[in-house]
Amino acid sequence: MRALRLPSTLFAVCFATVAVAADFDGSVPLSCTVTQSNDCPRTKAACEGTKAESSAAATVGIDFAKKQVRSPYRKALLTVQHTATNPDSLVLQGGDQYLAWSALVDKKTGALTISLADNEGAYVYFGTCKVADKK
After folding, report:
1. Residue-wise over 47-77: b if at least 16 C-beta within 10 A, else e?
2. 26 in Cβ contact with 37 (< 8 Å)
3. How many CB atoms lie within 10 A of CB 26?
4. 95, β-bridge pairs
5. Cα 62 to the center of its chain, rounded Å
6. What's the pTM?
7. Among 112, 128, 134, which Cα is nearest to 28's?
């Protein structure tokens, strides 16, 4: 019986793919850069793009263990009250008396979509996540 031999590059590609996929499985904190944000006031017919004051201000932090999301557009942390996962995405949701929010992270690419709604309208922003730097 012959042993099956695969090229070492095939093994490297396989393990690299697993490592990238594991980054977005909810096991490690993520740092997500906002690339586009929109303010959708209930008094206007269309959403308007917004700009962050700086690139550091346009970072969303997601800590799955603490069940917290740090938004660049709010001082208070968003508490994760519900999580769900499917083959494609991680879904996080939460709210308080004044705000409801939902976030989705694509497990394969790290693409981020967050929507926040309050009595004045909604905010929607898009970005890309990576594993957060350890402090």
Report:
1. eeeeeeeeeeebbbbbebeebbbbbbbeeee
2. no
3. 15
4. 100
5. 7
6. 0.77
7. 134
